[in-house]
Structures are given as structure tokens and as C-alpha cells.
Write a structure and sequence with these properties.
Blueprint: H1 2-30, E1 32-37, E2 40-45, E3 51-55, H2 57-64, E4 68-72, H3 83-91, E5 94-96, H4 105-110, E6 115-119, H5 130-134, E7 139-141, H6 150-160, H7 164-184, E8 194-198, E9 209-211, H8 219-222, E10 243-244, H9 251-254, E11 260-264, H10 273-279, H11 282-285, H12 288-291, E12 295-298, H13 306-320
Helix pairs in contact: 2-6, 2-7, 6-7, 7-13
Length: 326
């Protein structure tokens, strides 16, 4: 009899523990918090379990190890992904195309997300049916502004998705590497007046892209002591706050003071057509910095996560190495 009572007591305790555990899990799953996003204050799960990401949120949340169940296509970032992240990217269901207008609402609903993170610029949100998305799950829009803002942007995206541990780990590795390179080049890099030719010039219009501090081709180099002189004549918002598109004929005047010039190349080292247009011109060949052999290609200029920026740091180290021998 005592054995039976003891067994029943144990069963009761086990059942109570199981119920308590179940209640705790249900409570945890029901917890929410208010998140400040581009689309206002949004109530989101405190611990998301099924996240959909689009736009710039795709590489950021893959890298951070967020619990993704669907993503948009993000082909522009594929060359900057490491093998593990690329494998994850390729395996995840694609619920949207490259453009915001290519959002597949039915596909998003089918993966049953508990959070949707939209990583597109605020003006592009007009191409998305936000009301329809919000009927599926809470939606936070966290999109890019100026190019260098990827640091804060990726932090906020990881925060919303409950993936700050993975984010912070990669951030620490980046900061450590940047500090090492800043020290390595401290005697040669800060003293140079730098200029940069970006990849978004328009050959058909006869212009080129000049990037200043904080732009796509310069912001990672800024972290190791590089300084790109000058500023845009008239800020136009977003990337146009830190880059401009003068005609090629202005090149000799605009880059006359440059001690050294960097220029964007593709991830594989090939030169984009818009940059080749500049490099093939006699105006380029007659620049003082070019004649002095002070030109340096820069890869991974579209880095928008700390992992991608680590690749950019390694590429900068490779490009700037000759400076240490001068």
C-alpha cells in the first residue's frame, strides 16, 4: 500500500512538474515587448521562434543565427557570404524576390512566422502591402539610411529577432581586427588625403561616383584610419549625403589634391564597367596620385554586416600593404 501511495505521489509530482514546465513555455511564448521600428512602435514576441527577413535583414540575420523560416532573395550579397552562411541562404525558402514589390504574401503566410523583419529603405515601403503582412505576423521595418549606418541597422535587426548573442560575437571580431589594422597603418594611412571612385557611376551619362567618408567604399577604411577629403556639394539624402556624381571632365580638378586614390572592384577583383570607364581615361592616367602609383583597389565595398566587413578589412590590408614599404 505504501508503495502504491509513493508511486502515486511521484506520478503527481512528475505531472505537476510537466504542467509547470508547459505553463512556463506557454508563458514565454506569449511574452511580448514594444519595439521601435521605422513603421512606429510595434508589439513583437520577446523571444521570436519563426522569423521572416527581407532586404538588408537577410544577411544580418543569417549571420547572427536568427531562427529564420523564410527570406527574400539577396543575390547582391552572395559573394560576401562565407560558405556556412551561403549554405543557409540557399536552403531557406525564398518568400520574396530582390525587389520589395516582389513580396509573396501567400508564401510568407505558409511558413507561419511570428515576426517579419523588413530591411528596405523607408521610401520603398510603399511597394509593400504592410496591412496584409501585419495580418500574418508583427512587422518591423528596419531599413538602411546612409551606407555607414549598417552597424546600427544590423544591431536593431538582430535585436528584434532575438539574435544579439551571435551579432555581438561577430562584432567583437570585427572591432578587434579593425583595431589591429589601425595600429598597423597608423604611421602611413592617417596622413594621406584620399579620394575614392565608387561603382555606381553612369557611363551613359558620362559621370562617375565620388565617395566621401562614410560611404559604401570608404566607411570600413575609415575604421582603420583612412580619411577621404571633401564632402558633397549638396546632400540628397541616403547615400547621396556621402557621395556625388560629377562628370568625368571634372576628375582632374576634383582629385588634384589626392595623395592616393582607392577604387571599388568586385568581390573577385574584376573591375566594374563604371569604374573601368574612369580608369581607362587619359584624365585618370594624368592624375598626380595615379602617376605616383598611389592607387588601390577595394573589394567588398557593399559590406552591410560585421562578417562581411571583416572580409573588407582583410581586402584593405591586402591593398594597403605596399604603403608600409614606401
Amino acid at each position: 500500500m505504501k508503495g502504491l501511495i509513493a508511486a502515486m505521489a511521484c506520478a503527481l509530482v512528475a505531472t505537476s512538474a510537466a504542467c509547470a514546465s508547459s505553463d512556463d513555455e506557454a508563458s514565454a511564448q506569449g511574452e511580448t515587448r514594444v519595439f521601435q521600428a521605422d513603421n512606429g512602435e510595434v508589439t513583437i514576441p520577446a523571444d521570436p521562434q519563426r522569423v521572416v527577413a527581407t532586404g538588408y535583414a537577410v544577411p544580418a540575420l543569417i549571420e547572427a543565427g536568427a531562427p529564420l523560416v523564410g527570406i527574400s532573395s539577396w543575390q547582391r550579397g552572395e559573394p560576401m557570404m562565407d560558405p556556412e552562411d551561403l549554405a543557409t541562404y540557399e536552403e531557406l525558402p525564398k518568400v520574396a524576390g530582390e525587389l520589395a514589390a516582389e513580396t509573396n504574401y501567400e508564401a510568407i503566410a505558409n511558413v507561419r512566422p511570428d515576426l517579419i523583419v523588413i530591411g528596405v529603405p523607408a521610401p520603398v515601403l510603399k511597394d509593400i502591402d504592410m496591412d496584409r503582412l501585419e495580418q500574418i505576423a508583427p512587422v518591423v521595418a528596419i531599413g538602411p539610411t546612409v551606407p555607414s549606418a549598417w552597424r546600427e541597422l544590423s544591431y536593431r535587426q538582430a535585436d528584434a529577432a532575438g539574435a544579439l548573442d551571435g551579432f555581438n560575437e561577430t562584432k567583437k571580431r570585427y572591432e578587434k581586427k579593425a583595431a589591429e589594422l589601425k595600429e598597423k597603418y597608423q604611421d602611413v594611412l592617417p596622413g594621406l588625403k584620399l579620394a575614392h571612385v565608387g561603382a555606381y557611376g553612369e557611363v551613359g551619362k558620362g559621370n562617375f561616383q565620388r565617395e566621401f567618408n562614410g560611404s559604401w567604399g570608404t566607411n570600413v577604411a575609415n575604421d582603420i584610419g583612412a580619411d577621404y577629403y571633401g564632402e558633397v556639394k549638396e546632400k540628397g539624402g541616403g547615400s547621396r549625403d556621402v557621395s556625388e556624381y560629377p562628370s568625368l571632365e571634372e576628375l582632374p580638378t576634383l582629385f588634384a589634391e589626392a595623395d592616393a586614390i582607392t577604387y571599388t572592384v568586385n568581390a573577385d577583383g574584376s573591375v566594374p564597367e563604371s569604374v573601368e570607364y574612369v580608369l581607362n581615361s587619359d584624365l585618370w592616367k594624368n592624375l598626380p596620385a595615379v602617376k605616383a602609383g598611389q592607387t588601390y583597389p577595394v573589394r567588398y565595398t557593399e559590406a552591410a554586416t560585421y562578417g562581411q566587413a571583416l572580409k573588407a578589412l582583410e581586402a584593405l590590408d591586402e591593398s594597403f600593404a605596399p604603403l608600409l614599404e614606401q
